[in-house]
Design brief:
Elements (H helix, E strand, L loop, with lengths): L14 H32 L21 E14 L4 H5 L6 E9 L6 E4 L2 H6 L7 E6 L12 E6 L2 H46 L4 H21 L3 H27 L8 H7 L7 H12 L1 H21 L5 H30 L1 H10 L3 H5 L2 H35 L41 H17 L1
Antiparallel strand pairs: 1-2, 1-4, 2-3, 4-5
Helix pairs in contact: 1-5, 1-6, 1-13, 4-5, 5-6, 5-8, 6-8, 6-9, 6-13, 8-13, 9-10, 9-13, 10-13
């Protein structure tokens, strides 16, 4: 007895699929909306009021009357008599030799001899065409009493701006609209750091809640703005928040247990002496949490996308098989990301590593010194949170994707294997795997997957 089959238009979901998607979205919303509301309330309660109390640090770029910061372009540079040794020479002492850059001020006038500091002369040097910033002391002294023009820093505005533009162009050219949204989201993330996290720490707010609330707010904004509102993004966000919580707990514990004081860093030492209300250990804890956000976000969104792609490739794969397949991808990602974190921090701490090598100390002693312990703890705490976020993200993604694709039709109404699907859910066809293959059969090679994608595309175009 013949009967007609109704097929939904290409790109439209069947009624059971739409119902499953609604169920998944309701479940995710029930979890994430309260978290978002709590985050907003916590930010409102801890929002900095602008009162820094007794925290006062002298501005290294502030100048006395008659002293100016000037920028200019180096015309030529070479070893000459140091202007700073003029007083010693006048007293019968020996004149020292140093690097002097003849610099043309941007404001006009003749080129002036700028004395280059020894560390810059040894590490980088100065050449004709370089843009530098120097201290003009000519208003308070002359060449007979010392150096009237002293090097302060290089002017890096142009190269940094060009690199930033190149980065934006490359990201947008490859990722297109999503890349643009990611860059805008990054700007928003730094805005949260600048307006909430840093001022709150400066005013003595509790560091761990500030780090958690700020990080959660950043992840909500970055993930949804860059990847859109979808069950896939919400799944990645749940995994990210789980990993963030683990990292925060480990950071809070390890900061005290590993005695991370930050006293070995010059900038931290300056903050220690600035005020008693600043918690340096709290700042370190906050830094441990925030430093892992980018890599954690990368792993969870990739893992969530992997689950969805695997499901698209084989919609009838069982939840257990789908989880196992996605975890194989996750393990590879974990291995490569752990290397990424470790080498990124090793590169940042390279001068310290070289100093430790010169000290000729045992490796274990070197890794637990104050200079390196913070980097080691940051790597380990961030990696543990990252690793644990992978199976959690994968499990949530599998549950959500299976709920989305759930078929509520009674057993007798479902099509036989190989028959057209009245509900519009096409049976997968793989190269070497017929339509009648049992559920859970997944192609094992890239070639098989490519052939499967091509056959599905041809079938869709034929419909």
């Amino acid at each position: 007895m013949g009967h007609a089959h109704s097929h939904p238009e290409p790109g439209k979901l069947s009624a059971p699929a739409r119902a499953g998607r609604r169920r998944a979205n309701v479940l995710l919303t029930a979890v994430l909306v309260p978290l978002a509301v709590l985050t907003v309330l916590a930010m409102a309660l801890m929002w900095p009021g602008g009162d820094r109390g007794d925290v006062q640090i002298s501005n290294p770029y502030a100048t006395a009357p008659g002293v100016d910061f000037v920028t200019g372009t180096v015309q030529q540079a070479g070893t000459e008599d140091c202007p700073s040794s003029a007083p010693a020479a006048a007293a019968g002492g020996q004149i020292q030799q140093c690097l002097v850059a003849r610099t043309l001020p941007d404001g006009g006038g003749a080129a002036v001899p700028v004395e280059i500091t020894p560390e810059i002369a040894k590490s980088h040097g100065v050449e004709a065409g370089d843009r530098i910033r120097y201290l003009d002391l000519s208003g308070v002294m002359d060449a007979r009493t010392g150096a009237a023009y002293v090097f302060v820093d290089f002017v890096r505005t142009v190269p940094v701006a060009l690199l930033a533009v190149l980065y934006a162009v490359v990201v947008i050219a490859v990722a297109r609209w999503r890349g643009l949204r990611a860059i805008i989201g990054l700007v928003g993330a730094y805005a949260i750091l600048a307006t909430f996290v840093l001022p709150a720490l400066l005013e003595g707010r509790p560091a761990l809640p500030v780090a958690l609330v700020g990080s959660v707010a950043i992840m909500f904004g970055v993930l949804y703005f860059a990847h859109g509102f979808s069950a896939r993004t919400s799944t990645a966000l749940l995994g990210t928040l789980f990993g963030l919580g683990i990292t925060a707990l480990l950071a809070a514990w390890s900061t005290g247990s590993a005695y991370l004081t930050g006293a070995g860093d010059e900038n931290t030492y300056q903050l220690i002496n600035a005020s008693d209300q600043l918690s340096i250990s709290g700042m370190i804890t906050c830094g441990l949490v925030i430093s892992g956000l980018g890599v954690l976000n990368d792993v969870t969104i990739t893992q969530s996308s992997a689950v969805w792609e695997l499901h698209e490739l084989a919609p009838h794969t069982s939840a257990r098989s789908l989880f196992a397949s996605a975890m194989r991808i996750g393990r590879d990602h974990i291995a490569s990301t752990v290397y990424t974190i470790a080498f990124a921090y090793a590169g940042a701490a390279l001068p310290v590593l070289i100093l430790v090598l010169l000290y000729d100390r045992p490796l274990l002693d070197a890794l637990t010194t104050g200079q390196l312990a913070e980097e080691v703890v940051r790597t380990l705490a961030g990696s543990i949170g990252l690793v644990l976020a992978v199976p959690v993200t994968t499990a949530v993604a599998v549950l959500v994707v299976k709920a989305t694709a759930r078929d509520d039709r009674p057993e007798g109404a479902r099509p036989e294997p190989g028959a057209p699907d009245p509900g519009g859910t096409a049976q997968p066809v793989y190269a070497g795997v017929p339509d009648t293959a049992p559920p859970g059969t997944v192609p094992e090679s890239r070639r098989a997957r490519r052939q499967a994608d091509g056959m599905r595309a041809r079938r869709r175009s034929a419909e």
